[in-house]
Amino acid sequence: MSSDQQPLLRVRDLVVEFNTEAGVARAIDGVSFDIYPNETVGLVGESGCGKTVTGLSILGLIPSPPGKIVQGSIEFMGRDLVSLPEEELRNIRGSEISMIFQEPMTALNPVFTIENQMTDVLTRHQGLTRRQAGKAAIEMLDKVGIPIPEQRIKEYPHQLSGGMRQRVMIAMALSCGPKLLVADEPTTALDVTTQAQVLEQISLLQDEFHMAVILVTHDLGVVAETCDRGIVMYCGNIIESADINSLFNHPRHPYTEGLLNSIPRLREKKVDQLPIIPGRVPDLFHLPEGCRYGDRCNRVTDQCRQTAPLLQSVTEHTAVSCFHPVTQTSG
Amino acid sequence: MSTPLLEVRDLKKHFPVKSGLFHRTTAHLRAVDGVSFTIEKGRTLGLVGESGCGKSTLGRAILRLLEPSSGDVLLNGTSIIDTPRSGMLSLRRKMQMIFQDPYSSLSPRRTVAQTIREPLDVHSIGTPAERRQRVDELLDVVSMGLQVRDRYPHEFSGGQRQRIGIARALALNPEFIVADEPVSALDVSVQSQVLNLIADLKRDLGIAFLFISHDLAVIQHVSDDVGVMYLGKLVEFASAEDLYRNPKHPYTRALIAAIPVPEPGRKRARLIVKGEVPSPINPPSGCPFHTRCAEVKAICRSELPAAVDVGEGGRSHLVNCHLYGKASD
Q: Is residue A268 situated within a structural domain?
């Protein structure tokens, strides 16, 4: 990431709400961040923190109703995607911005062959003929590491394994050479050995296609291995954003620190008790006053319980929303 | 030698694959294909493997929730498999299960107290007042307040539901619990809370666990011994300490190397295993891992490797691989 570059994507003060039986749930509450060309940014947090909704809103895929972007802008290469008509958004989606999903079985249509689904994208966005599109699709499948692509392309999704289906999804998402790929938990449903293969493939293709990747995940290990930068979300807010080294080596927000500590990781020596974060994530209808992490935080003060901290820049590319950030320690 | 708490002998579970007009059995899916091990009283065996390796089927076959195809399971020296159906109820008091999905494993129509009390009702233990008291005790053991007694599962988060499921499994004071992926549906911050609870139970109540997980880091935290499964077979079996410090089987090594580590910049020489797990309907000849193994030799393709003990200092460390033992060069 270089500071002289213009951001590819500029999200400002985004608010997304969902109408539910229990009332209006604010799934994301004032989220702002930039994505620069060619970088990989990890969007991390636990279930319900708003990371997936953030990813979906970039592509205008928030199911509406019940969801709605009620405030904010998503600027992509000079255009505000929030105010763009659906027709124009459709031209961008799948060609300039692509998305891959967690469960490749539900994201692929079970009644069409891989060829059918892949050529659809290519004829729609690239204006290729069916024959040209078929050839381009086989090339793409080859690139994502599918053996015997000319045979595989005739098959239906159920004939492929989970790892293969995810590769097909990636091939489809990249077939039009997007500038930005939003990958929502792309390896969560896969086994570790397959996950390693798929992550390797994504990073190889990223270099080849010069695209930016937003990796939405709950797995901090995946972020550490693949991303340049990390954005941590909690209860609909960004609570910390930093380059990968400072995020993991010097986390500033107590939540980031707590998350890092509580991951069961391979250890030299077995410990008696894993460090934990006490309590649990508050639900969106009963958010505490002040800082949303306050009830679980070990550094909480009266100030935190009264006013919510805002995301403040610490250095050019690091920001944290905490009144009492974890101080830098050596090591 | 004293009898181990649980002994599994050459256990197999094959599922018939039916096809065609007359629904004939055309093949067998070898979910569990000859697994043997023992668990001593109060110890935890971690069973690790990727999806489809047969680890969950093995867990269920041991409790006879699935009828094994062959082999034997002995609890305190008594065969579970030979026990007639009528005798199973009393055996089940000693062995319980914790399930993966805290959402589908609790009845939505029963209150917390009813759910936890159910095993006591089924086994007719105690008077109603005693049962009520036992429920309160159990809620305390899993660190939930008594005010939750009359609430329903939907009011709780995944981590709390898993605590309710654990309380239910503890109701009968079992000696042995099969925990099938008990934390994989939970968020990290909650995962460690539940893992700590299980570690406490093991220490305070002396319960033996078969802890099934795909996550090697989770397994390390709770296990005394670890078994690695691949395509229905155990490929390595050792104490947790030995297995993690000195993994022998190429598959175990690859599994360990594939875990993403939350330390940026530590780009390990990744041992990326090629290809995918073959189908258990038509497993490869010889060593089941030979199609993906980087160190494959000619003998691996034709001959199934037997367990070789490569343990040091008197501790057993079994590995089923031709790279070890007398067959190696």
A: yes
For A46, nearest residue in chain B (alpha carbons): B187
pLDDT tens profile B200-246: 999 899 999 999 999 898 999 899 999 999 999 999 999 999 999 99
Average pLDDT over residues A115-133: 90
**With contacts defined as CB-CB under 8 Å, which chain B residues touch A280?**
157, 159-160, 189-190
Answer whether residue A117 is part of any domain. yes
Look at residue A328 and tell me if it is in a domain. Answer: no
Instruction: Spell A88-112 as b/e; 16+ CB within 10 A means b.
Output: ebeebbbbbbbbbbbebeebbeeee
Q: How far is Cα B327 from Cα B329, in angstroms, rounded to an integer?
A: 7
Measured between CA atoms, how close is B221 to chain A, in angstroms? 6
Q: Among all residues of chain B, which has the CA nearest to that of A249?
A: B263
Residues A265 and A192 grouped into a single domain? no
- Which CATH number characterizes residue A84's domain? 3.40.50.300
Domain count, chain A: 2
**Least confident among A96-110, A173-187, A218-232, B232-246:** A96-110
Question: Which class for B2: exposed (0-12), middle (13-18), buried (19 or more C-beta within 10 A)?
Answer: exposed
Same domain, A189 and A273: no
Weakest-pLDDT range from A3-12, B146-155, B304-313: A3-12
Nearest-Cα residue of chain B relative to residue A198: B272
Averaged over A101-121, what is the pLDDT?
A: 87
A3 domain residue, yes or no: no
Tell me the shortest Cα–Cα distance from A253 to chain B, in angstroms.
15
For A245, the closest of B257, B265, B273 (CB atoms) is B265
Q: Is the peptide bond before A275 cis (omega within 30 degrees of 0)?
A: no
> Quick check: pTM over 0.90?
no
CA distance B260 to B214: 14
**For residue A159, pLDDT beyond 70:** yes
Q: What is the pLDDT of residues B74-90, one digit of tens each?
A: 999 999 999 998 888 88
Same domain for A146 and A30, yes or no, is: yes
Would you call B188 and A220 a contact, using CB atoms and an 8 Å cutoff? yes
Query: ipTM exceeding 0.90?
Result: no
Which residue in A171, A244, A243, A183 sits closest to A209, CA to CA?
A171
Contact B216, A266 (CB under 8 A): yes
Range of the domain at A180: 9-234
Given A178, A209, A234, which residue is the final one in a domain? A234
